[in-house]
Write a structure and sequence with these properties.
single chain, about 650 residues, alpha/beta, Rossmann fold, Beta-Lactamase, 4 domains, five-stranded parallel sheet, five-stranded antiparallel sheet, about 15% strand
Length: about 650
């Protein structure tokens, strides 16, 4: 022990179905606490899963659970060479101490295998091994369980296979005899028959029966005197013995290979389910998809009915959702009467409960929390009907639930991140609003205040023409402020979906004429013309809102172009759409500003003659109104100078009522 630093201590404890194994685990846990070490519990699962009796399986589950409760992480490895696999895992994981239990079995003969503890010491000479002795009563129990585990019930189907294969081997041997084949070839046929029997049957008893029957059949049909169990040649006794031993060895090896292949297929399937679960949960885009995927994968793994209880928005456990294997209520597993009560306890304590567990052990189902980092997202009830899970299945389920909890946590984090991002955008929008309002209102308010102060102070000294000009300026600035507020209120209602479109079939030319009657009174300083086609553009629209779009576009052209500029309004049909363009020959809009002209509260750098704002709410409102009509609006350059705003609206479809 002097060669290891306490900071890197890693203790490995072996878990088994032994009744005294909890004592070994407890000793390892105390040692890990004393050395401040990491504790790992390892279980070497035999390839022959049927060798464990029901009592041993229950005891093994309890021992594994006891190890987890004592802070150990449980690792399951499949294999039959326990000492070598324990030593290999110890070397790979950096284990510094191994804690094992020792039984009362002693080495009886020189040629017999040494005890398990001695084999581990020999396999891992560089690791400290601590041995916790078992009691004599435990040894007796282990010996009885070992004898019971070898008892298996044969089936009629396997007996029929064995009989048919023996008959086939005998028939082939008789054919070989007719053609003069030697007895060694016939012996090979019977050994092949025993091998096939071992492959097609599960119970190893049939391999032994097939081996004995092959020897007897060979003696009866092919050794002189035939049709008797006597023989004139003494060397045939050696032949019979070799044949029997060869058949037994061949059958045993074939049976073991078949069991290994079957077990490997099962473990590969379970591992694939776990890997598929990880990939599917990564693709899930909502908590409902995560729960659906988790339930589907657990059902695929266990073929058991499930009930999942989720945490509600108020933090309490909500009602459960059933996930049935056959989706038929007639074949659904029976639920516990107090199922909701057990689920509530598991949710509150974040500990498993139910069948064969510490809490609510009389239940028919097992209940596991879906939790991560102290946050419980729900509870899953696996309706076992008092049929326990294998330890490896239980570990896979625990891993799947961990992946489920992680996926739910990731979705919550993404939602919170999106909420925080939305809050930042709202704050930015509010800041832009304040900046835009202050930018747009300051100049007209200053003008109104200055003109009003001038009238109050020098009203009598001013001539009539000057007073009329001041009153006109105050009126223009007031109208501009009213338009600004109206646009602000309108676009807010549009963004919030509070505006209801009152559609009717309208002629686009009439809407353009109506808009021209309400444009800025400075329109007289510009050359405004309308160019339309002879076609009647009938559009299903809210005429009041589309009129406001045209007013905003025309006023925008008036305010952003010097006096005397030309403004042209064009209407035409493009495919199934009516297109309206407001074109000016002013200074145009800079390329870096164009992507933002339709954004709410965006202030461009263009300056107009009166020093007011260049671009802003009016264009954003136009975009909202046009899109509400399922249309679109674009900005392009006018040749040679200026810009073109064009919006497209779907044409009215003529419907014939028969």
């Amino acid at each position: 022990m002097e060669g290891h630093s306490e900071a890197g201590e890693h203790i490995l404890v072996c878990v088994s179905p032994s009744p005294s194994n909890p004592k070994v685990v407890a000793a390892a846990a105390r040692m890990a606490e004393a050395f401040h070490a990491t504790l790992t519990a390892i279980y070497i699962k035999p390839t022959d899963t049927g060798a464990l009796s029901e009592e041993d399986r229950i005891r093994l589950e309890n021992n594994i659970r006891f190890a987890e409760q004592n802070g150990a992480s449980v690792t399951t490895i499949i294999g039959d060479d326990i000492p070598v696999q324990v030593a290999e895992y110890a070397h790979i994981s950096g284990t510094t101490k191994i804690v094992v239990g020792r039984s009362g079995i002693r080495r009886r003969h020189f040629w017999s295998k040494p005890p398990l503890t001695e084999q581990i010491i020999l396999s891992a000479p560089d690791v400290d091994v601590y041995i916790i002795p078992d009691s004599a009563a435990d040894l007796k129990q282990q010996q009885e369980n070992s004898r019971l585990s070898e008892r298996m019930r044969p089936t009629l189907k396997e007996a029929a296979y064995t009989l048919l294969l023996l008959i086939a081997a005998t028939g082939i041997g008789l054919i070989f005899t007719r053609f003069g084949f030697s007895e060694s070839n016939i012996i090979t046929v019977f050994i092949l028959g025993v091998l096939v029997i071992s492959v097609v049957t599960i119970n190893p008893v049939f391999s032994v029966v097939g081996s004995l029957a092959s020897v007897l059949l060979f003696n009866w049909f092919f050794i002189e005197p035939r049709y008797s169990f006597h023989t004139y040649e003494t060397e045939y006794a050696v032949t019979f013995a070799i044949m029997l031993i060869s058949a037994l060895i061949t059958g045993t090896l074939a049976n073991r290979m078949k069991q290994n292949a079957r077990q490997s297929a099962r473990e590969a399937f379970r591992t694939k389910v776990l890997l598929d679960t990880n990939q599917l949960l990564q693709k899930a885009g909502s908590p409902a998809e995560v729960i659906q995927t988790t339930a589907r994968q657990i059902i695929t793994l266990l073929n058991r009915d499930l009930v999942i209880y989720l945490r509600g928005e108020n933090g309490a456990l909500e009602g459960g959702t059933e996930f049935l294997v056959s989706w038929s209520s007639e074949s659904a597993a029976a639920a516990d009467v107090n199922e909701k009560e057990i689920a509530g306890w598991v949710f509150a304590h974040q500990r498993s409960a139910g069948f064969r567990l510490e809490q609510y052990g009389e239940a028919k189902a097992q209940y596991h929390p879906i939790s991560l980092n102290g946050t419980c997202s729900g509870v899953i009830a696996i309706r076992l009907n008092r049929v326990p899970l294998e330890p490896f299945e239980n570990s896979i389920v625990t891993s799947i639930l961990g992946e489920c909890a992680l996926a739910l946590e990731n979705l919550r984090n993404a939602e919170e991140k999106e909420r925080a991002s939305m809050q930042v955008r709202n704050e930015q929008l509010r800041s832009n609003l304040l900046r835009s309002i202050s930018h747009d209102i300051r100049t007209p308010l200053t003008t109104i205040s200055g003109n009003a102060s001038n009238l109050l102070s020098h009203y009598r000294q001013l001539d009539d023409e000057t007073r009329e000009q001041i009153f006109s300026d105050i009126y223009d600035d007031s109208e501009w402020l009213i338009d600004l507020v109206e646009n602000l209120l309108s676009i807010s209602r549009m963004e919030n979906g509070q505006v209801t479109l009152h559609r009717s079939s309208e002629i686009m030319n009439d809407v353009i004429e109506e808009a021209l009657r309400h444009v800025d009174r400075h329109a007289a300083e510009h050359d405004i013309s309308v160019q339309d086609t002879d076609d009647i553009l009938l559009v299903d629209m809210d005429a009041r809102l589309i009129t406001q779009v045209l007013i905003n576009l025309i006023n925008n052209a008036i305010k952003n172009t010097p006096a005397g500029s030309s403004i042209r309004i064009e209407s035409r049909q493009t495919g199934g759409e009516a297109a309206v363009t407001v074109r000016d020959n002013g200074p145009g809009i800079a390329d870096e500003i164009k992507p933002h002209v339709f954004e709410m509260f965006y202030t461009g750098q263009n300056k107009v003659a009166d020093g007011r704002r260049g671009l802003g709410l009016g264009l954003a409102l136009c975009k909202s109104i046009v899109e509400a009509h399922r249309g679109r609006i674009t900005l392009t350059d006018n040749d040679p100078s200026g810009c073109c705003f064009t919006f497209y609206l779907p044409m009215k479809e003529v419907q014939v009522n028969e």
